[in-house]
Design brief:
Layout lengths: L27 E2 L2 E8 L6 E2 L2 E7 L4 E5 L5 E11 L2 E13 L4 E4 L5 E2 L1 E3 L6 E14 L8 E4 L5 E2 L13 E6 L9 E5 L5 E11 L10 E11 L5 E8 L13 E3 L6 E3 L7 E4 L4 E6 L3 H8 L2 E5 L21
Antiparallel strand pairs: 1-11, 2-4, 3-17, 4-5, 6-7, 7-11, 8-9, 8-12, 10-11, 12-13, 14-16, 15-23, 16-17, 17-18, 18-22, 19-20, 20-21, 21-22
Length: 322
Amino acid sequence: MVGGCALGLAFAAPAMAAPAVIPQPPGVAVPLSEAFVEPDPIEGVGPLRWRAVYTRAGGGTRTVGVNGALQGLVFGSSRTWRGKTTVNIRGALITSGEVAAISVNGGPPIPTVALEGLPVPAAIVVYEVVGATTVRRTPPSVKYTFLDATGAPLPRPVITPEPPIAPGTWTWMGPSQSLQGVCTITASPFPGLVSTSGTVVTQLRHLAYEGEVDTVCAATLYTYNGGEPLEAFMVVDAAHLGTRPGPLPGLVPLTGSTALVSRYAPDGVAAAATNAGWLLVRGGRDQTQRLSLLSHLSGTLEGEKPRPRRHHRHHHAPHHHA
């Protein structure tokens, strides 16, 4: 106190230095021998999800999810030197179809590769940045410039968002489905095959949406003799219930059967058409087991009577391989 008055001393906080922006090397194209999309259903119901499968010209196949806005998968190797880390980044970027090319860190335009068969136009670019630098574990920045067919810059694009379905759903647990939904997945009896849980859509609004809306309306989880889980999905055109959806991209016919299988076989799906949709199976030990389950499934819409699918001699249930 001085003269009965309190002295208020104010000290200015030291200004924080902005982190230094480290210039990064430009990105260059990673040539691709092919790129396509295929169904990538996940547990539960809702819009059918997709993934892009791409193969580099020098070999090596990878996948990246397509749904939603821009998505990237970044991976690489690194070495440490004097507290800094030099990283080789390889990324896969999914973008909307109007983008003709992408420049990475100011590098030369990298033409996009169209992904055919999706409800909305989309494209992919795979790039590499050699010698990107990080400091104190801060990831290196990667800057994208999106270009149209004339080379003019575009705003950062966003793939058309999934339509708002907001269906009512029920989830059930146990060896048998006890809830009736818009769709029902039924498996014919087979020793060792047990359903453990699932989800059904109880109401599904018709959508004002241009084109088909492939929607998972029922999902069931199975096990066979306690092995790796198998997931079954029924897919319908939510905008035109009761009609068979169009062909699913990324699937190829199986010789001697009406079933279809993923072109990227290691962890892809097996599929079969029904009167009003598609049945998809993923997971399990291998493709043979997925086809085995598929041959025992039927899928129906509410009000239909279950019609067991005919079994095909080329993919009977595995008696001795579980």
